[in-house]
Amino acid sequence: MPVPWQQLLDWWFGQGTTAREISGEKHALWFGYRSAQDAQARERFGPLCEQALRGELDAWTASPEGWLALILLLDQLPRMIHRGTSQAFAGDVRAQQLVRQGLAHGGDVLLAPIQRVFIYLVLEHAEDLAQQELAVAQFEQLCEIAAADEQPLFDDFLDYARRHRAVIARFGRFPHRNAMLGRELSEAERAFLAEPGSRF
Questions:
Q1: In the chain, at which residue ranges do the beta strands (DSSP E only) sit?
Q2: pLDDT < 70 positions in the chain
């Protein structure tokens, strides 16, 4: 009998066998906005996402793959299902707790490097410098173990982690979230958001 999270992992990671193949197939899903993708996430996984946000799927953490899937439901899926609203970030605190707990007992190393990216992205999403520092350290470790032909892919992930850390070090928060969260922009944040590449 298939485990309850397998359809989500298949959708998110596809059928590739290497990090390059998986990223090549799924990069647009992971990092590109398409309304059809958001609709698919909502239709296929909306109920599971809501269960995760209510804390009803915490038993999934008993398995590394279940832990990963739960983190996707708390961190990545709300950003698609509730894009442009404060609900996009509703699972962040719980996802960060689950990631820190998993890292404490080495649960991340039981996953493939490309899967671990989505564990560490939770820390990269945190408006907290200590978690940003941890994200960078984890991505540095991935770069150290990456195969030579996959080095550019993991270098790119590390570069994004460093850029996120720099924003939090400068502002203590992500200015591009302010409108969604009802926060006032400072003049420095306003000037920053006018720069190319300032929105992740």
A1: none
A2: 1, 200
